[in-house]
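# nightly structure sweep
# worker-07 picked up a monomer target from the shared queue
# config: single-sequence mode, recycle default, output format = C-alpha cells
# input follows
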Amino acid sequence: MKSDQSETGSEEIGNQGQNAASVVDIRDYRQTLDPLPVTFHRRELDAILWIYGKMVGEGVWRDYAIDHLKDRAVFSVFKRSGEYPLYRIEKNPKFAAKQGAFSVVAADGRILKRGHELKQVLKVFDKALKLVE
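# output follows
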C-alpha cells in the first residue's frame, strides 16, 4: 500500500509543477491585456498646432480637443466650445499601409483628405475652406 500512496503523491507533485507560475515581462503582459492608445508624436502635434494657431489668428477656430483612443488619435477643432467639431484630424494606424494613417474629416463626416504624410494632409487647410451652416 505504501507504494500506491507514493505513486499518487509523485503524480500530484508533477501536476503542480505544470501549473506553476512562469515569469512574464510586465510590458508584454500589459500590451496584450490592455494595449496602449494611439497617440500623436511630438512632430505631428507641432504641425497640427501650427495650423491651429494660424486658424485661431484668423478667427476661424477657437477651441480644440485631443482624444487618444485604442484604435486612433483625434484632434478636433471647434468654432465654439460645446459644439460639434468643425474638423477632425485623425491618425488611424489601421489604414497606414493602405490609404494612409492621417485624415481630415469634416463636420458632416466627409473625408476631405487622407494620406501617409501629415503635412500633405494638412495642406487641405491652405485652401479657403468655407463653413457651411
